[in-house]
């Protein structure tokens, strides 16, 4: 039985440039096929992956910009609420004798409502950013996996024919028989 590492150690049996032959050494051809597949994935998948990431980055930046606009609106509402609060405080000084406690309750309600609104908008902004990031990651993973699978299937269908399949099966049967004879 031929040692599997002979093809790596002894280069003398390799054909010269210009000749054509079928390399039946499965270990050497698998390394070549893997090298070709990885090279093709790097060369062709790099641009697609870069475009996907750039598009996703732009969407995330747009989402962040929209969230910041929402935040600015919330700050404007907060400023309006503060202005209203100042007006309420002026009125409170005028009507202190009649309803000081009622005015204070309204002031606290306005502050709490504005704070809750601002907090909700901030939470919504953070949730949106996290969801968009997770969605981008999942889409990139799915696309890379799909491209790798398509490349592997294409390589297999191109390089694996019936004759090679039968030879592989016969070689494996021969190895199993040899193992069986050794055990007996």
Task: Give the topology, please.
Layout: H1 6-9, H2 26-94, H3 96-159, H4 162-183
Helix pairs in contact: 2-3
Subcellular location: Membrane; Plastid, Chloroplast thylakoid membrane
Coiled coil: 61-98
Membrane topology: Single-pass membrane protein
Quick recap:
With 184 residues, this protein is mainly α. It contains four helices and no strands.
Provide structural commentary.
The chain is 86% helix and 0% strand. It has 184 residues and is mainly alpha-helical. It has one domain. The longest helix has 69 residues.
Helicity, as a percent range: over 70%
- Provide the succession of SSEs: HHHH
Structural class: mainly alpha
The geometry reads as rod-shaped
User: Which value, in Å, is the CA radius of gyration?
Assistant: 36 Å
Contiguous helical run count: 4
Function: Component of the F(0) channel, it forms part of the peripheral stalk, linking F(1) to F(0).
GO molecular function, one term: proton-transporting ATP synthase activity, rotational mechanism
InterPro entries: ATP_synth_b/b'su_bac/chlpt
Family: Belongs to the ATPase B chain family.
Task: Supply database-style keywords.
4 helices, mainly alpha, rod-shaped, single chain, about 0% strand
